[in-house]
Amino acid sequence: MADLLDQSDERGMAMSPTLPEGCKNYLIDIDGTVCEDIPNEEAWRMAEAEVFDGVVEVINGWYDEGHVITFFTSRTDDHSVVTEEWLDNTGFKYHDVLYNKPRGGNYHWVDNHTVRATRFTSKFTEFVKRWAEVEVFDDDDI
Predict the structure, then answer these.
(1) Domain-by-domain residue ranges, the chain?
(2) CA distances (Å), 132 to each of 59, 64, 95, 135, 136, in order?
(3) Which listed residue, of 11, 22, 29, 78, carries a Cα 20 to 30 Å from 100's Cα?
(4) Residue 112 CB: number of other CB atoms within 10 A?
(5) Is the pLDDT of residue 86 over 80?
(6) SS3 call for 69
(7) Rounded CA separation 72/28 (Å)
(8) Percent of the chain beyond pLDDT 90?
(9) d(CA 31, CA 89)
(10) What is the C-alpha separation between 75 and 102, in angstroms, rounded?
């Protein structure tokens, strides 16, 4: 995993560190994004969830390129053992799993760092490479 770079403001005060240029923090949902959509209420299905075609190769490619891979899921802490065994058994390379993401969708992320989002609607592909073609707007432009 890439080492974080120390940052300071114009006064020389420490700020939150950042990743080196070109390195991305991928936050990847699990259910409905990398495998079939399984609700928490049917946790018995999680151990055998069907992985979508090509997703392991794409994510492992990002990992091998040095990016940070974190699965960010609405599965609860109670599902951590089955989830991490499933990720390992299906061959995913990753750095961490964050549980308890709010359920229901319609996410709005507010942050002082660059945030890019991709809504998954079909085959998992290397969609991130397309970002070079997309203009990013500030709040004032919306």
Answers:
(1) 24-141
(2) 19, 21, 26, 8, 10
(3) 22
(4) 7
(5) yes
(6) strand
(7) 5
(8) 51
(9) 16
(10) 9
- ∠ at Cα 1 (15, 19), nearest 5°? 30
pLDDT class of 21 with cuts at 50, 70, 90:
confident
User: β-strand 25-28 against 96-98: which pairing, if any?
Assistant: unpaired
| 82/59 Cα distance (integer angstroms) | 20
Higher pLDDT: 117 or 45? It is: 45
Structure tokens at 68: 């940070």
Give the other-Cβ count within 10 Å of 96's Cβ: 11
Rounded to an integer, the average pLDDT of 84-113 is 92
Residue 134 has pLDDT above 50, yes or no: no
> In 3D, which of 101, 78, 133, 85 has the Cα closest to residue 28?
101
Which is higher by pLDDT, 111 or 89? Answer: 89
For residue 123, what are the CA distances in angstroms to 2, 24, 34, 126? 28, 21, 9, 10
Beta-bridge mates of residue 97: 71
**CA-CA distance, 12 to 9, in Å (whole number)?**
5
